[in-house]
Amino acid sequence: MGVSNISNPSNAASLGLVKSKADIIDQTLKRPFCSIKGNHRRVIMASISSPSSTGHDVNLKLSGDSFIRPHLRKLSAYQPILPFEVLSAKLGIKPEDIIKLDANENPYGPPPEVLEALGSLKFPYIYPDPESRQLRAALAKDSGLESDYILVGCGCDELIDLIMRCVLDPGDKIVDCPPTFTMYEFDAGINAADVIKVPRKPDFSLNVELIAKVVELEKPKCIFLTSPNNPDGRLDCISMTGLAGLRVGYGAFPLSIIEYLWRAKQPYNVSVAAEVAACAALQNPKYLEMVKESLVQERDRLFKLLKEVPFLNPYPSYSNFILCGVTSGMDAKKLKDDLSKMGVMVRHYNNKELKGYIRVTAGKPEHTDALMECLRRVS
Ligand SMILES: Cc1ncc(COP(=O)(O)O)c(C=O)c1O
């Protein structure tokens, strides 16, 4: 795995990929493997024999990480936001009193049909349909696509991972256009692919000319052109179903590709609860439309209010979150921390492209009011 940064057309021609060396294997056995918990514990010790420098055989003990594929040993973990209950305990604030504007979540939740359907699940003890037929039929009706083109997964995250697993051999290349959704680089790393970064322009638009050059020169297997882009929200799409916690998403693919995604996916990737909930949500398009309208309205009000804050520079967004440059010498990470102490969560990214920004999700009107009050207090 390696990462290349390309910032202007002149260096595209002399593109070089950076490969990092594999880590040195720690050969000390720290903990045995236990296959069964409780009284019937079966312990399997891992060891190999190898000639010592004196010519005698000794048992060289291996630690667990020596079994891990070398490129994975240097992979940094994805940085998720804190789970709600953990956050609540940490802040000493009840979950329902936390203003959560740090993720792509819909504060209105799903339509009432979803909770009813989940409360009367008939067969939770039976494995789900591996082809998620009911949900794909509902999505086909909703989207106008034939269901043959639709694959559902445990969130869109699973589908991104699945595409890369099916397409990438170690050393293959992907084009990533940061700042963007960080899972593209993460999944490329898992697949030992090389990441060619073509940064976005200062207004977060794509550097199309440079992408075209890189495609010609490097023949990448995947290019990720995200719409709406996360974190800046260019172009249009809003997550309305309010099912982030149930992990269900879908993608549409050409038939020549979807065939292989079917073969490679986990058979029971969408749970009974997720399929039932998503089908129920799609039965109430009126509610979904109403939620979308409320969020769009609130996003626009939030944008106007954020524009009046002397140390924030919000970017126009077509999604349900707004990226803000933090200006006037104020530190973005400190701002995020100060707001979180007051129970208002916003997103801050600890990477070089975004360390001077925060991302604020549009919530309910009372969430915007609470955020604005806290912003007044920190200024
Ligand atoms: C661009 C992009 N892709 C995928 C996802 C993941 O979506 P899901 O929750 O369906 O896995 C997100 C989440 O915010 C996102 O911003």
Automatic annotation (TrEMBL):
InterPro entries: Aminotransferase_I/II_large (IPR004839), PyrdxlP-dep_Trfase (IPR015424), PyrdxlP-dep_Trfase_major (IPR015421), PyrdxlP-dep_Trfase_small (IPR015422). Signal peptide: none annotated. Keywords: Aminotransferase, Pyridoxal phosphate, Transferase. The keyword Transferase applies. Its EC number is 2.6.1.9. Pathway: Amino-acid biosynthesis; L-histidine biosynthesis; L-histidine from 5-phospho-alpha-D-ribose 1-diphosphate: step 7/9. Residues 97-234, 242-373 form the Aminotransferase class I/classII large domain. PANTHER family: HISTIDINOL-PHOSPHATE AMINOTRANSFERASE (PTHR42885:SF2), HISTIDINOL-PHOSPHATE AMINOTRANSFERASE-RELATED (PTHR42885). This is histidinol-phosphate transaminase. It comes from Corchorus capsularis.
